[in-house]
Structures are given as C-alpha cells and as structure tokens.
C-alpha cells in the first residue's frame, strides 16, 4: 500500500517519468515558481533531464511505486533548502532518502545558512519542528529528520547570500556542479589490472546490439567503487588555528609553485562533497602525507582521524613536521605542550578511541621528519624549502620550466591570477597582455609551473609567431598534438582544418593545460583553441602584445570564459633588485659609491625587465663611473634603443601595424604625448585615415594608453623607440617629417630654415632667466605639408598659417593667428593665450570643429561673424574673460559641447541660444549668469546641464520642462528658491543635484513624474518637506538628505521607492520614519548618523531584507524593534554614541551575516543570550560601554570573532569557552 506522504507531498511528486538525471528537492511555495523553475529550465538546456513535480508527473506510470525508487533513478540530487523547507514533511522525508542513497547531493541554501540546519530547534526552523511535534510526529521520526539535515549542512554547497541576489549566477554554478558530478559519455580510464572483464563486456555489447537503434537502458548492478575525487601529490595534515595562516599556507604555496598538487582542506573540498569522505579518500589516494604536529594538534578529533588513516594505509609515505613541539611530547601527549588539548579530547570521547589515538601519536613520533623550534631554530622559509625538495624527490615529478634568472615581484601577481581562476570557475582562457619585454613569458612560465599538476596533460609552446612563420598553423597544431596526446604521436597534421577537427576530438576528452606564448594572429587562434577543446575543465593560457588576439580569436564568452591580465612593469624596489642582481650579483653587493647611480638607472629602466637585464649586463662588475654616466645618458636621451636586443623586441608590435597606424603611432610618440585623443582623431580623420579604429588598435597592442582625461600617454621606452624609428627613417631618405623639442631650437640656433617636408612641428620657447634665451619670430606659410603645428611660449608667427594645417595649438601666444581663405583647419587650441580679440579671419575656418579659448582672461567678446562656423562642435571658454556671446551664436547649428565654467563676467545668454538644436552638454558652473532665456527650453537634445555655484541665478525659465532629453542637472550652491511646475516633465532626468541650496524649501508636486530619476542629492539644502508624489519615483536608487536640518518627516508614500538602495539622513532633523519604510525592498545602506531627534525605528523595519549597512552613530535611538533580527543580510552596524540605547532585542542573534558591530560609548547594559548565534561576527567594539558588566554565556559560540575592544567598559573577564579564538583583544 502506498504511503500517504508519497501521495500528498507538495515539494516533489510521487509519480515520475522513467528517465531523468537530476532530482530537485524543494519547498514549492518558497521557490517552485522562481528559482527552481529557472534551474529546471537551465538543466534541460544543458542536456539533463531534471525531475520537477510540476513538469515530470506522468499519471498511471507503473514504473515507480515509491519516492525511494524515484530518488534511486537520479544520478544527482539537488536540495534547495529555503525558509519554509522544514514545514514540509515531504521535503524532510525526501532529504532522509537522499542522504541514505549514497548519491551525490548538492545543497543550495536559499536565504538560509548551513548552521540553521545543524541547530533546527533554535534557529529559523524551530517553529516548524514545534508544529511537527504538536501534530504527533514521533521522536524517532523527528530525530531522523534532524540527522539528515545535519548531514546535509556538512556538505559544502551553495549559499544564495554569496551571490548577492544574482540568481542567474547561482543557477549557472549549480548546473556546472551537476555537470561535474554527472557521469558523461566520454571515455574513462579503466583500472590497470582488469581480469575477467572481457566476457562480461562482450555480453553487454551483444545485448545493446540486440536492442537495435532505439533508445534503451542497460543496468549494471553490483558493489560500488567509483569516485570523483582528484588525485593529489601530497596531503597536508595540520591544526588550523596553529598553522593554517602561517607555516602551512607558505608550505602549500611553495608545493604548488613546484608543480605539485597539494591537498589542503580549506582549498581542496569542492561544492557538493562530504568533508570527511573527501579528506579520507584524498589520504588513501595520495602517496605522500606531511603531518604538521603543533601545540593543539591532539585537541582535534579530525587531525587524529587523519593520522590514523595515514598510518594504516600502506601506500602512504608519512613525513612528520614537529612544529614548535618535540617528538617526545607527541609520543606522550598527556604531558608537555600537547597536554591541555589531549585532556579536552579525553573528556569528549570513549576509552577505545583515546587508546587508538595515543598509539597513533606514539607511532608517528618515531618517524624521521623535521623538528622546528621556533625563533631559536632555523628560518621557516628554509624548512619549507627542504620539505618541498623532499616531497619533489619522493613524488618523482618532472622538473618545472625554467622561469628565468633574478625573477622578482611575480609571486603576488601569480597568486592573484590563480585566485581569480579558482573563484571564477568558468574561465577557459587566460590572456597575458602587455608591451614587449614587460615579462609576459616569465609570468606564463611561472603560472604553468604552478598549475600543470592540476591537469591530466600540459603543454608549453614558446615563440608561436616564429613557429608559424617557419611551418604555418599546422606546425603549432602538431606540437599541441604531440605534447597533449602522447599516444597519438604518429598522427601528422598536414591540413589546418583537419588538424582543428583532430584537436577538438582528442583534447575534449581530457583536462589539459595549454600555453601559447607570443601569439599575434587572431585568425590562427581559431585553429588551435575552441570551446569544444576546452569543454572538460581545460585551460588555455596565451601571451600577446595585441589584446584583440583574445577578443577575436574564438567564440568564448569574453565576460565569463576569458580573463585578460594586463601585465604591468616592476615597482621601483623590484627594479633595483633585478638591476643589482645582473650588475653585481645582488643588492647586498652594490658598492656604496654607486648606490645613487644604481637607484637612478634602475628607475630610468621604467619597470621593463628586458631593459633592466640589458643595462645590468652592460654594467656588470663595471667600476668606471664614466661608463655608468654614459649608460644613464643613453636612458635619458632614448639612445638605449641603439641596443638592438631592446629595439628589436619593442619594434615587433610596430612592424605588424598597417601603414597609417604606424604614422599615427609616430605622431603620438614624437609629438602628441599628453595631448587630447579627440583632437588627434579629428586630424587623422581629415587625412582620410580610420582614426578611431587606429587608436583602438594601438591601445590593444599595448603601444599607447589613453588616460581618464582622454589624453595620450605611453611607456618611455616605446616613446624612445618611436623617435628612433623616425630618426632612422630620416637618415634613410633624408626627409624630415616630424620635428620636436629640443631639435627645433637646435635648428634655429644654427639659423637653418625649417624643412618644407615637415608634417608635424613642436616648438617651445619658454621664458627663463638663463642666458641665451631670445624671442622667436617664425614664418610657416612655406610649410606646405604641415598638418600639426603645436607651439608654446615666446614665439610669434609672422605669416599666415599654411593651408594644409589641420591642428594648431598656440598656447601662451600673444596674437590670434591669421587664417587664409583656403584652409583645412579643424582644431584651434589657444589655451592660456594673451589674445584680446578673435581675428575676423576666423570666418575662413569653415571646417573648424573644436575651438579651445580656455583661460584667455583678456578675451571679452567674440566677433559677430562667429556664427558662420557651421561645423563647430566643441567650444571651450572656461575661465575666460568673456562678457557676452554674440546674437549670431545661435547659428552654430552643429554645436554639441559648450564650456563656460568660471566665466564670472558672463551675465546672460543671447535669445538665439535656443536655436542650438544639437547642443548636448552645457557647463555654466561658477559663472556670473543671472538668467536663462525663455528659448532655453528649445534645446531639444540637451542631456547635461551644470549650473552649480551660480549664486546669482534665482530661477529657471518656465520652458525648462521642454528639455525632454535632459539626464543630469547640477544645481548645487545655487541661488534657486524653487523649481518650476514644469520640472516634472523632464521625462529622461536621471541625476539631480541641489546640494547646498540653502534657500530651497520644497519640490514641486509634479516631481513624482520623474520616472527615470536615479540619484537625488539635497545635502545641506533648506528642504522642509517632500511631496506625497515623491513615492512615485519608481527608479530612484540613491537619496542624500544629509544636513537637511529642517526636514522632520517623510511622506507616507516613501515606502513605494522599491529600487532605493542608499539613503543618507546624517545630521538631518528627521524625527520619525513612516511605517511604510519597511517596504523599501532593495535598501542596502542606511545612514542615520547624528539624527538626534530620531528615537525609534518602525516595526516594519525588519522587512528590509537586503539592508547590509546601518549607521545609527550618536542618534537619539532608544530601542530597536523586535523585528530587527529579521535583517537577514545585515553585515555592518554602528551604534556608537547611542547614549539612550540600553538593550538589544532578543532577536538580535538572528543576524547571521553580521560581521562588524560598533557599540562604542553606548549605554548598553547587557547583551541578549542569542548574541552567541551571530555566526559571522568578526569585529566587536564595546569600548567605553561603562554599564556593560558581563557577556552572555553564549559568547563562546562566536567562532569567527577575531577582534574585540573592551577598553573603558565594565567587562572584567570573558566567559570560559574552548570555542572562542580571538586574534586581537
């Protein structure tokens, strides 16, 4: 007869289809329609057949007569434990069956914590278990459920809290874990001694052939013996609190650096694996075990269980390390340093177990190993090195790749990259990108040595570009096949397409590590690497100077499956170490008289290891200071490029560029470092070049950078290389195309005429008190090829500009240049010039797009002809002396950006201003503007408006609401008193800043119409109230009401702001929060610091499930609501200086994610008994809590607490507990 619970269960059905892989155990009302539904769909898309009652019922199916049978069919069980999970007896009965089945179980802790399952009658599941008792469940059944839940909690699973509500990412990781634990159809390795299998195999094959082509199932029944754990080279057994973060972490790092795969519990247990099962299996399969005996080793049952397994597994070689204890103390654990820990163990276990462990300790103490006495003994680094060498010798592993001489500064980078790979488990390709000689190959070799032990096979191919030149794409394919598929070395690839197919077929079966060093052809990459090749947990590492190699070479997801590491230069300290090693054999051997020169030269090498090596080798054992000075001079002047090894290495990236991109690179290296990228793009576009694409290419090949201000920069050595290329080209054909400082002044001093072939000219003549300075008059009209002309200082251009010049930069000049009628001028940059008027010839600049007159303080007016500049897109008049704009200004039909910041003499804008239909961005901050014309609302494309600190502007025109595309308004320190009613019509407004507007009192009723508004800053404004329509701001995310002292309350509609993430009420006059406050379902950060008139929080406060950080410092808060404990995501709480707060609610212990509590100088009198349930608490400040005299007994349960401050409190002692381990006190 069917059991009743099988017929009525709500979580998973009693009737199932006859073919599925994954069983989804869940509580329907919590997650069925949301997370579990999406998970089921994702599993189906991944090729699995998940069982979910809503889709998997097949009425009348006689194949399954009990839930146990249904569970048996699935290969993997997924348990989604949610808040109401324990209410369902069906879920609980299922989890019992799952834990007994022996199948892999993947727990998903959805809005609950693993600890909630261990103490079911104290935490969130307590109420559910009470109901089960009241309904007559037997104690036997209840205990059965408790045991199953506790076992489930001990399996490493997924916590939804770790994903910050990103359920898509959580879903993806669960599917990946199912894939890992589910048997695939790929070939598997068979045991070496397989006797008597042939006849059974033939019989099975005959059965399958008799079944024909249709689908079917072949069942193989028998004893289990298959596992999925990794094979390690060495197992590290240790007592965590003693050595994990110190000695053992260094040992583990160096073992992996030597290419050994080391098992360390905190890093080696995967999701879904039972901790002890994983540890025991790893010990039995690992040939070497290093046991680190320390002071509290004998206190740990786990350490002793591990030791017992090791000593009784004949295939395991045990190497003991007596860390700050003596072998005799291990042999006699009831005396010496191990005494206290062993006594605690005796009190917790039976006599037989104690005797067994005592015998194991005695046996281990007699083994040959290492003894480390601490500060009086050898250095820990030397001990680690000796252990690694011994393990390497015993493991008989192949030697790692030679990384290089004098390699420094690389370990931290390697650790960060490995951490990224381990954290983001989806990475299939690692790209190491950077300029030539920067150390990409060195980094790749170090990573290869560290990672190769984790894979079935590994392959490192260097100089890939050179090999392609020698034998094409197939040469590299054959090398990959040879190293990664050793059993198929007889196969020779002759066609790259067939080679790709072969590699996909062979590599997809194993976990492989492939390194391709120095790749420049993104097209060829597709024949070496595809997603199919890397589908079984493999990793490909590629080094290149061209970022596009990674982005265009394959179909991998750039966000999830590819990680690009930009390889940077060495620090000054590391540069000095490398240079001194090559020059002297080490830093300690540097001669005192050369210390300063060593520091200067190593710094001038710019962090490039190749340059450090060349310069260090040049000066090896050199005592002559004159030689040192010559090398320093070479570095300073760029003539170090005469060293062919450096020049050739750096030039490789340049040589692969298209011709026009090479010209752009030379323009930048010779003349445009520090100049605006946007200006250069305009110039190159005028020459018919693909400028934007060219700049992107230069950046991607690590030849050029563009800083946050949009200006060019590049490494000094790349700059010197570019100038050397230009110099050698000049020597080759005798044509001078680019002339920069100081060569320009040298030509003038020799009274030579500027060559007519010039395309780019940089001329500086700064005034100084030094002798020889002279005023320069120069004519340039004969320079017919000149495209870029940038000059600065005491220079007077006596002729009109050449007609082909595209960009002029005349900074600090006295006169406006004469523009000929026929010209190609696109950019005119006259920043900081002393011009008093814009010459009327400006009307000739019909192609002008960008005009910079910033800091021209003597310029007051623009000519009426200014409106004829129809192509002008960008005008910068920042901090100029401009007093008014001509009426023709509105005729600038292509104007997009206008900067009038700090134009203090500008009072108004012309009426024609509204005709600027393409204007997107206006900067009027700190200007003297007093009013905006009514036509202002006709700027139909305006997106950004800055009116901050316009203290004389008191109102906005009524037409303001017509600015339908306006996204960002800055009105801070504005003299405004109110906003027009039409303000609510700004349908695209996203950011509004009204900070420091002391006269501003209220917002218009139409304010709630701003549906796209994301960010409001009203800091230190005079705001007195918010309109009821405020709650209609459906996209509001950030609200700053700091120092709004006249604001007393919030509208009832405030709780409608469902997207609000961050609120600051600091120093405001707020007296209460509305009951609807708890409806702010996305609120993460709340600042109520110094809200002295706020005495309580609403009862609904506990509904703020996403709140992470709340600051109530020095507020008037008197108590916290009982619902406070329901803030399930709260991490940081500041209650310091809350002099009216004396108690915390009993529910406080429910804050499972709380990490940091600050109660400094509060009047707290006691902590609730539930305080010990704060399982994530790390930092607790109770300083100056003078009325707090004791801590609750449960305090010892705070296992993660590492820092507690008690100075000035009434606390005299901590409660006794062997569970409490505080790092700082």
Q: How would you explain this protein's 3D organization?
A:
The chain has a 21-stranded parallel sheet. It has a five-stranded parallel sheet with strand order 2-1-3-4-5, with helices on both faces. A five-stranded parallel sheet has the order 7-6-8-9-10, with helices on both faces. 31% of the residues lie in helices and 12% in strands. The longest helix is centred in the middle third of the chain and has 21 residues, at 464-484. Helix 15 crosses helix 18, helix 22 (464-484) crosses helix 23 (496-507) and helix 27 runs parallel beside helix 29 (625-637). The protein has 35 helices and 40 strands. It comes from Ceratodon purpureus. Residues 18-182, 230-395 form the TIR domain.
Descriptive key words:
single chain, 1225 residues, alpha/beta, 21-stranded parallel β-sheet, 5-stranded parallel β-sheet, disordered N terminus
Strand content: 5-15%
What's the Cα radius of gyration?
37 Å
Mean pLDDT over all positions:
83
Q: Which structural class is indicated by helix and strand composition?
A: alpha/beta
Number of DSSP helical runs: 35
Spatial gap, N to C terminus: 63 Å
Low-confidence stretches: 1-18, 54-65, 184-229, 768-772, 1218-1224
Give the overall shape: globular
Main sheet: strands, sense, barrel:
21 strands, parallel
In short:
By secondary structure, this protein is α/β, with parallel strands linked by helices. The chain is 31% helix and 12% strand.
Topology readout:
Blueprint: H1 4-8, E1 22-26, H2 28-45, E2 50-51, H3 53-56, H4 67-73, E3 76-81, H5 89-101, E4 105-109, H6 114-118, H7 126-134, H8 139-153, E5 158-159, H9 167-181, H10 198-211, E6 234-237, H11 240-243, H12 247-257, E7 262-263, H13 265-268, H14 275-285, E8 288-293, H15 301-311, E9 317-323, H16 327-331, H17 339-346, H18 351-365, E10 370-372, H19 380-395, H20 411-423, E11 429-433, H21 440-451, E12 457-461, H22 464-484, H23 496-507, E13 512-516, H24 522-528, E14 539-544, H25 548-552, E15 562-566, H26 572-584, H27 595-604, H28 609-618, H29 625-637, H30 644-655, H31 659-672, H32 677-686, H33 691-700, E16 705-706, E17 712-713, H34 716-733, E18 738-739, H35 743-749, E19 760-765, E20 776-778, E21 788-793, E22 795-797, E23 807-811, E24 827-829, E25 850-852, E26 874-876, E27 897-899, E28 921-923, E29 944-946, E30 968-970, E31 991-993, E32 1015-1017, E33 1038-1040, E34 1062-1064, E35 1085-1087, E36 1109-1111, E37 1132-1134, E38 1156-1158, E39 1179-1181, E40 1203-1205
Parallel strand pairs: 1-2, 1-3, 3-4, 4-5, 6-7, 6-8, 8-9, 9-10, 11-14, 11-15, 12-13, 13-14, 18-19, 19-21, 20-22, 21-23, 23-24, 24-25, 25-26, 26-27, 27-28, 28-29, 29-30, 30-31, 31-32, 32-33, 33-34, 34-35, 35-36, 36-37, 37-38, 38-39, 39-40
Antiparallel strand pairs: 16-17
Keywords: Leucine-rich repeat, Repeat
GO biological process, one term: response to other organism
Domain TIR: 18-182, 230-395
């Amino acid at each position: 007869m069917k059991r009743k619970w099988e017929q009525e269960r709500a979580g998973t059905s009693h009737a199932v289809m006859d073919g599925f892989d994954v069983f989804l155990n869940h509580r329907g009302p919590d997650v069925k329609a949301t997370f579990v539904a999406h998970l089921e769909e994702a599993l189906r898309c991944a090729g699995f057949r998940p069982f979910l009652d809503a889709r998997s019922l097949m009425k009348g199916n006689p194949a399954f007569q009990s839930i146990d049978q249904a569970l048996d069919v699935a290969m993997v069980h997924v348990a989604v434990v949610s808040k109401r999970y324990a209410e369902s007896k069906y879920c609980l009965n299922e989890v019992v069956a799952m834990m007994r089945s022996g199948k892999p179980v993947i727990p998903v802790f959805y809005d609950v914590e693993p600890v909630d399952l261990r103490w079911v009658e104290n935490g969130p599941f307590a109420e559910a278990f009470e109901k089960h008792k009241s309904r007559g469940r037997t104690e036997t059944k209840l205990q059965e459920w408790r045991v199953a839940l506790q076992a489930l909690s001990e399996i490493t699973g997924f916590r939804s809290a770790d994903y910050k509500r990103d359920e898509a990412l959580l879903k993806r990781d669960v599917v990946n874990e199912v894939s890992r634990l589910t048997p695939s159809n790929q070939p598997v390795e068979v045991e070496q001694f397989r006797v008597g299998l042939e006849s059974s195999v033939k019989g099975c094959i005959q059965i399958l052939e008799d079944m024909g082509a249709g689908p079917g199932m072949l069942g193989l029944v028998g004893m289990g013996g298959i596992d999925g754990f990794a094979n390690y080279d060495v197992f590290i057994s240790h007592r965590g609190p003693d050595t994990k973060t110190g000695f053992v972490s260094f040992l583990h790092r160096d073992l992996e650096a030597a290419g050994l795969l080391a098992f360390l519990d905190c890093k080696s247990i995967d999701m879904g694996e039972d901790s002890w099962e994983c540890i025991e299996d790893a010990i039995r399969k690992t040939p070497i075990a290093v046991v680190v005996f320390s002071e509290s080793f004998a206190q740990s049952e786990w350490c002793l269980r591990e030791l017992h397994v090791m000593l009784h597994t004949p295939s395991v070689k045990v190497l003991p390390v007596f860390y700050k204890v003596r072998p005799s103390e291990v042999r006699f654990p009831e005396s010496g340093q191990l005494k206290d820990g062993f006594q605690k163990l005796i009190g917790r276990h039976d006599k037989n177990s104690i005797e067994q462990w005592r015998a194991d300790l005695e046996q281990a103490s007699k083994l040959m190993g290492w003894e480390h006495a601490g500060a009086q003994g050898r250095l820990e680094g030397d001990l680690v090195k000796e252990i690694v060498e011994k393990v390497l010798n015993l493991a008989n592993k192949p030697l790692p790749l030679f990384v290089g001489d004098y390699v420094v500064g690389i370990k931290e980078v390697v650790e960060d990259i490995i951490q990224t790979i381990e954290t983001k488990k989806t990475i299939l390709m690692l790209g190491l990108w950077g300029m030539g000689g920067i150390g990409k190959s060195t980094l790749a070799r170090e990573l290869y040595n560290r990672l190769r032990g984790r894979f079935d096979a590994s392959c490192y191919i260097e100089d890939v570009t050179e090999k392609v030149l020698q034998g094409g794409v197939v040469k590299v394919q054959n090398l990959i096949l040879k190293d990664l598929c050793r059993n198929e070395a007889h196969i020779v690839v002759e066609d790259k397409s067939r080679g790709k197919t072969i590699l996909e077929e062979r590599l997809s079966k194993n976990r492989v590590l492939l390194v391709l060093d120095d790749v420049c052809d993104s097209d060829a990459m597709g024949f070496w690497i595809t997603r199919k090749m890397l589908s079984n947990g493999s990793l490909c590492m590629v080094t290149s100077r061209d970022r596009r190699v990674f982005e265009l070479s394959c179909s991998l997801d750039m966000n999830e499956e590819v990680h690009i590491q930009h390889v940077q230069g060495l620090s000054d300290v590391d540069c000095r170490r490398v240079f001194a090693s090559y020059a002297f054999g080490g830093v300690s051997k540097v001669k005192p008289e050369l210390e300063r020169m060593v520091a200067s030269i190593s710094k001038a090498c710019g962090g490039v290891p190749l340059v450090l090596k060349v310069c260090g080798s040049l000066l090896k054992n050199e005592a002559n200071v004159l030689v040192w000075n010559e090398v320093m001079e070479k570095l300073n002047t760029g003539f170090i490029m005469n060293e062919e090894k450096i020049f050739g290495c750096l030039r490789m990236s340049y040589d692969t560029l298209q011709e026009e991109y090479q010209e752009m690179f030379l323009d930048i290296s010779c003349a445009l470092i520090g100049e605006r990228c946007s200006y250069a793009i305009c110039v190159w576009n005028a020459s018919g070049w693909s400028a934007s694409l060219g700049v992107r290419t230069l950046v991607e090949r690590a030849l050029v950078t563009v800083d946050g201000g949009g200006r060019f920069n590049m490494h000094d050595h790349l700059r010197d290389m570019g100038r050397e290329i230009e110099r050698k080209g000049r020597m080759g054909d005798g044509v001078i195309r680019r002339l920069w400082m100081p060569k320009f002044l040298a030509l003038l001093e020799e009274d030579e005429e500027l060559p007519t072939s010039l395309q780019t000219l940089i001329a500086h003549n700064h005034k100084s008190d030094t002798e020889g300075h002279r005023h320069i008059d120069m004519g340039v009209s004969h320079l017919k090829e000149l495209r870029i002309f940038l000059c600065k200082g005491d220079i007077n251009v006596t002729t009109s500009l050449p007609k082909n010049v595209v960009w002029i930069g005349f900074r600090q000049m006295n006169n406006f240049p004469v523009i000929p009628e026929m010209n190609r001028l696109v950019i005119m940059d006259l920043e900081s010039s002393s011009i008093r008027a814009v010459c009327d010839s400006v009307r000739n600049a019909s192609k002008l797009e960008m005009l910079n007159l910033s800091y021209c303080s003597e310029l007051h007016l623009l000519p009426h002809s200014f409106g004829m500049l129809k192509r002008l897109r960008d005008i910068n008049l920042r901090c100029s002396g401009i007093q008014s704009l001509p009426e023709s200004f509105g005729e600038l039909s292509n104007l997009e950006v206008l900067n009038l910041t700090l134009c203090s003499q500008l009072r108004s804008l012309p009426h024609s201003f509204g005709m600027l239909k393409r204007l997107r961005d206006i900067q009027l901050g700190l200007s003297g503007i007093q009013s905006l014309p009514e036509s202002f609302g006709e700027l139909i494309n305006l997106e950004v408006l800055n009116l901050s600190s316009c203290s004389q502007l008191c109102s906005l025109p009524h037409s303001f609401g017509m600015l339908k595309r306006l996204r960002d308004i800055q009105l801070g320190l504005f003299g405004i008193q109110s906003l027009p009613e039409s303000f609510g019509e700004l349908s695209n407004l996203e950011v509004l800043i009204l900070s420091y507007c002391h006269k501003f009192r209220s917002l218009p009723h139409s304010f709630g119409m701003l549906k796209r508004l994301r960010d409001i800053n009203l800091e230190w404004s005079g705001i007195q109230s918010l309109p009821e329509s405020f709650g209609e701001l459906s996209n509001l995310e950030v609200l700053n009401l700091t120092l709004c002292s006249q604001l007393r309350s919030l509208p009832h509609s405030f709780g409608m702001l469902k997207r609000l993430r961050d609120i600051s009420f600091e120093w405001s006059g707020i007296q209460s929060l509305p009951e609807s406050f708890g409806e702010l379902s996305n609120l993460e950060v709340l600042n109520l610091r110094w809200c002295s008139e706020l005495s309580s929080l609403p009862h609904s406060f506990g509904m703020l499930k996403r709140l992470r950080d709340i600051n109530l410092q020095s507020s008037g808060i008197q108590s916290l609501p009982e619902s406070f404990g329901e803030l399930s995501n709260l991490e940081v709480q500041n209650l310091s200086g809350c002099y009216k707060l004396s108690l915390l609610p009993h529910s406080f212990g429910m804050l499972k994610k709380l990490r940091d509590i600050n109660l400094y100088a509060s009047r707290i009198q006691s902590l609730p008994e539930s305080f010990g349930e704060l399982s994530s608490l790390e930092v607790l400040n109770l300083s100056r809590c003078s009325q707090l005299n004791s801590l609750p007994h449960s305090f010892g349960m705070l296992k993660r607490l590492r820092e507690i401050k008690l100075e000035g409190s009434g606390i005299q002692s901590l409660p006794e507990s062997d569970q409490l381990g505080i790092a700082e006190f």
